[in-house]
Amino acid sequence: GAVVSQHPSWVICKSGTSVKIECRSLDFQATTMFWYRQFPKQSLMLMATSNEGSKATYEQGVEKDKFLINHASLTLSTLTVTSAHPEDSSFYICSARGGLAAESQYFGPGTRLTVL
Amino acid sequence: GQNIDQPTEMTATEGAIVQINCTYQTSGFNGLFWYQQHAGEAPTFLSYNVLDGLEEKGRFSSFLSRSKGYSYLLLKELQMKDSASYLCAVLDSNYQLIWGAGTKLIIKP
Fold it and tell me: Which of B49, B97, B104 to mutate to test the interface with A (most CBs of A within 10 A)?
């Protein structure tokens, strides 16, 4: 149990376009979902925390107008990178909490974004 | 501030035992996690400790001392596939995960 999926696994886009990444909890209801970004050889950086039906809470330094998060249901959260630029190229990972152990977070497989 | 320290890199030999340490200073404590992350992949859950002591799960064990703000992950009978980064993370008083920078473990034949 406690499976989280992400789509797409990887995406290449042109500078200036927007990219949407989906995160789904497949076998449990995720009361909270987290979005992380990870640059090569660095640790995870929390971007934002979202609770179903409410606005996401963004970490300091993360532009909420650039990284749009929608947590529309207990099983789905989306991250939209608007007007993407090459510096947004990164590994984006979502995680969800609310499964067997409320304290545990279960990670999606990640989305590799490359902006040309 | 909140801080989690773990070694940047460790090297060990196949078949041996390695211990990866993690010390933390956080605002509140609701448990400590260890995750394994292979290059290019998302982290996978290894262990969760909220009480003092040793938790054993197959070849992997995790220890916690809350009074010392200290944990370690012990890997036995090392295999080449154990080469990965190992991330220590603490759940703080707001139930936010505070992440360490990770320890890259290199296994040599």
Answer: B97
Q: How far apart are CA B108 and CA A73, in angstroms?
A: 46
Given pLDDT bands bounded at 50, 70 and 90, which one contains residue A7? very high
A91 contact partners, CB below 8 Å, separation of at least 6? A37, A38, A39, A110, A111, A112, A113, B40
**Per 3-state DSSP, what percentage of chain A is helix, strand, and coil (rounded to 5)?**
5, 50, 45
**Cα distance between residue B14 and residue B80, in whole Å:** 6
Residue range B84-104, pLDDT digits in tens: 999 999 988 877 788 999 999
Mean pLDDT computed over B65-94: 95
Interface check B11 vs A, CB under 8 A: no
Q: Taking the CA of residue B56 as centre, how many other CA atoms within 13 Å lie in the half-sphere pointing to its CB? A: 3
Q: In whole angstroms, what separates CA B56 from the centre of its chain?
A: 13
What tens digit of pLDDT does each residue of A38-59 get?
988 788 899 999 988 788 999 9
Q: Which residues pair with B65 in a beta bridge?
A: B70
A104 to B99: CB separation less than 8 angstroms, yes or no: no
> Token pair for residue B101?
């920078």
For the stretch B7-24, pLDDT in tens is 999 999 999 999 999 999
